[in-house]
Amino acid sequence: MIAGPGGGGSTQLVPRMRAILLIVAAFFVVVFIAQRFVAPAPSVTALDYKTFYQKLETYQVQTFHARGLDADGTLTNGTLYTTGLANRDPAFAKDVVQHVKGTVTFESSTSLSFLGIVFTALPFVIVAFLILVILRTAQRGQFPRP
Description:
Elements (H helix, E strand, L loop, with lengths): L9 H28 L6 E4 L1 H9 L3 E7 L2 E6 L4 E5 L5 H10 L4 E4 L6 H27 L6
């Protein structure tokens, strides 16, 4: 325990422990949110380009959606997939249209929008703000009252 000038050591220790627990809790909340919204779904199968093209040639692709050099969709067995495309070849686009059984869509690659940047940076800003508030409060020697 930390002994203060009046001998009341436990009065300073409890608020510091609360502050540390608040930081740890905020960290776990941010990690949980990041895993829910940023991480891809675990049921999506990542295919390399060669495997994807083999499935395309054998008519095993149900849907295809390309954004820039990334593509995703559904295989005929219901499995969701994601893959990277080698380049923007017009012959490849014709192959996709001929061999895919369902819908085919192509989008040009988009740069990050302002809203996307804000959502990506938001968890880090929240944690930085909480740390700043806790450190400033600790520096002044005043702790929030429960």
